[in-house]
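Reviewer comment 2.1 asked that we show a complete input and output for one of the modelled complexes. We chose the 1,3-dihydroxyacetonephosphate case, as it is the one discussed in the main text.
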Amino acid sequence: MPLMTTKPMFDLAYDGGFAVGAFNVNNMELAQAILDACAKEKSPLILQISKGARKYANIRYLKAIIDAGVAEYPDLPIAVHCDHGDTIDLINTCVKDGYTSVMIDGSHHPYEENVRLTAEAVKVAHAAGVVVEAELGMLGGIEEDVVGMDAHEYEKNVEKFLTDPNEAADFYKRTGIDSLAVAIGTSHGAFKFKHEAKLAFNRIEQIMKTCPGLPLVMHGSSSVPQEFIDLVNKYGGAMPNAKGVPEDQIAMAVQKYGVCKVNIDTDLRLALTAKIREVFATKPAEFDPRNYLGPGREALTKMVQRKLHVLNSAGKADVINKHWEKLGKPMPNYYGKGKAA
Ligand code: G3H
Ligand code: 13P
Ligand code: ZN
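Response of the prediction step:
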C-alpha cells in the first residue's frame, strides 16, 4: 500500500527534474479522476484536502473516498496532505485521521508568530512521523478558507510580499520544517494576473541558496488554460479576464529551478465546470447527474494527465516506490510504529 509521506517523493524530485502535483479533492469524482490520471501516467501524487473541503464533504465521507482510492491503486505512490491548515487543533486531527503530510499556514501572522505556530505544528506532526509544509511570504487570491488578498492588488505590490531568502533560512532553522511554500508571484484562483504573467524566478534561486536541501512548494499554480475559459464563457459562464501561470513557466520553475511540489485546484474546477456547462447547454433535457458528472470526470482526468506532463512526473512512480522501499517504507506512527501496516 504505497501511501507514504512526501519525503521519498521530494528526495528524488529535485535531482530528477520533476515536481509532484498536489491536487485538491472535494468529492468522489475529483478523487477518482486524479487517481485514474496518475495511474495512466504512472505518476506519484499528493491528494490534498483543504479546510473548505472538510466542511463541504464531511471529513468522514472524504476519508472513506480517499481510503478507497488508495486501496484501488496499490502501485501508486500517494501522500495525503492537509492544505492550508491553520491551527494546531486541525493539525492534530489530521494526524489522527491518518494524513501523511500537513501544511501549517501561518503566513498571514507576524513573522515571530508564524515561527512559533509552525514550530509547534512540527513538534506535533513529527512526533507521529508526519511531515510538515509551512509558508513564508504572502500569496494573493482568496479561497473559501485561505487567507490572501485580491489577486490584482497583490500583483501591484508583489515585491513586498515575496518570500525573503534570509528570513526563509532563519525560519527553516528555527522550525525544522520539511518543505516551504514560497511566495514568488503566484496567487490562488482564476484571476491571477491583470498584466503580464511573470514568476520571480530569481527569488526561487536565492531561496535555494539560503536554504539548501529544503524542498520548495508553489501554491496558486493553475494555468487557467484559455480553451477552458472559452468553453465556460461559450456555454453561459462569465469569466472574462481569467488568467493563470503559463505552463512553460511552471515547467521552468520545476525543471530549471527545482520546485518539488506544485498545487493545483483551480484548473480542476475549470475542467469540471466547463464540461458540465457544455452538457447542460447542448443537452437541455439531461437531468441524470451521472450523465454530466461522468463526462466532467473524464475532462478532469485529461486535465490531470496534462499537468503531469508539465510537471514531468509522468513515469516516476516506480523509482519513488523503490526509493521508499530502500528507506524502509517509513510511515506515520498512525499506521503502526513507524512502518507500513
Ligand atoms: O489553496 C486553496 C485551495 O484552492 C482550496 O480552496 O478553501 O475553496 O477549498 P478552498
Ligand atoms: P490554484 O488556485 O492556482 O489552483 O492553487 C491551488 C492551491 O494553491 C491550493 O493550495
Ligand atoms: Zn494554496
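The domain at 7-326 is CATH 3.20.20.70 (TIM Barrel). We note this here for comparison with the apo prediction described in Section 3.2.
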